Prior knowledge:
By secondary structure, this protein is α+β, with helices and mostly antiparallel strands.
Amino acid sequence: MRYGAMFIALAVCATVLAQSKPPQSQMVGLVEKIGDKGKIDWQYGVIYGKGIGAIPTSEPNKAKAYLKARRYAVMMALENLLMVTDRVRVDATAYAEDFEVQNERIRTEVRGFVKGAEVVSERTITLNGAPAVEVTMAVRMYGEDGLSRILIPEVAAQSAEPAKPLPVVTKPVSQPAPPPAPAVSGNAYTSVIIDTRGLGIRPAMSPKIRRQDGSEVWGTVSVSADFAIEQGIVAYAKTLEEAKANRRAGDNPLILRAVGYAKTPGRCDPVLSDNDVRLLLTANENSGFLNDYRVIFVVD
């Protein structure tokens, strides 16, 4: 009983601390670490939460001691997974938690979604010289059972652009993308790859491509965006080679270099030069790859 009470007290303290100070995030490749709580894998669309439970040395039965620690680790992993899920970047201005604050139904659905997480890793570790159980739990960002089925319809319902174009920041391009090969008849462009390296672009569920004046080129989600829910609006890669190998790219991707980004909290919308915008829209008229979400961002 005393051990169970300790679990409850620790859980309450952890919840209060979590609510008072959001964990810091750090991008390592395409994985975004959210403090020591978990991480978001933007390349593979998986959200992870980690929990640790100390194995009570006062329990003589080793199996019972392990199970007690494991139960607590699972509880903390779910708590942390919810915290990490709240920090999923949805678009240029909002995180998942912002949608939850605005809509109680969304809040309830997200919490139910996290409760369905699976244990993907379980191991015994040593913590401050004492034995403990570490459990990692995960949920998917996309697909029929993913977070996207909750949030993407909300994005589609709130897809109106701001009255004024967003402010943008442009930077000199140190390594411009190679000039795109002209698409000839019968060999139309199959996708667009936008190289954003060096601009600090961050992954998001619903980014947009913008002009140098801040207006939208592409990215508004339609209400019936089944593919966006299943696969995501854009794919992310770390190199051009990786982007070309992505199944969205097809045989003849159009490769463009971003010249800046929209100055927003999310920093997820790349900006193209006016010439590249015209090239992109002309290419799309011929093959419609933008309509099929065949878009890949290369990020640092």
